[in-house]
Amino acid sequence: GRPPFDEFKVPTQPGRIQQGWGMYFTGETSSAQAWGPNVIPANIPSSERMLHWNESFSNQPEGVRVALDQLGLPISAENTGQEIYDLLADQFMPPVPARVGYGREWMEQDLQANRMASEKLSEVGVDGTYSDFQIAVFDPVNIEALTRREAAQPEITDREMRPIGEIEHDDLSREQYDQLQRMREMHFDTTTVWYHGTSQVV
User: Fold this and answer.
1) What is the Cα 147 distance to its own chain's centre?
2) Helix crossing, 81-90 with 104-123: angle to 10°?
3) 194-198, strands of its sheet edge to edge
4) Most buried in the list 40, 122, 124, 168, measured by CB within 10 Å?
5) pTM passes above 0.85
């Protein structure tokens, strides 16, 4: 069966989560193995539904800009995705007098604030954060795990890019056709395989 996505692997750096709270994916299996020895291939939401980490607000996908407007944050056109995420996460941090230096407790507060920021973004329709190197998906529900055999199969990009109504059933099995239609309806990127490293046995 398909492996479950029921844990989060969150690469961290001093003071901040690397690219927001979420389940991390990369396009390279070797990079995914740095997060865990077992690699799970998957399809994930389109980057058009993600906060682009290094892009300014004005260069975010239209749907993401609309979603961010719902948050009521003081965002300027020049703010990057990272700055916007941090601005939101800061709203969930305790008041300054309650913060406990920059030790373990502060890191735990920061981690919780990032988790709440990701959950809030997910509520308004942003599925994750995106950069050239990696993607963080906020909700495991938005991940379509692939078996190793499926990930190794040749791309069917031409058929995937065509409107569903133009795809002949002879081209795909009924199961493949139904799966492709469902994934399109959920705005998945079905033309790229991404990889998640985990400590789970898969």
Assistant:
1) 19
2) 110
3) 50-52, 128-130, 134-137, 23-26, 194-198, 38-43, 144-145
4) 40
5) no
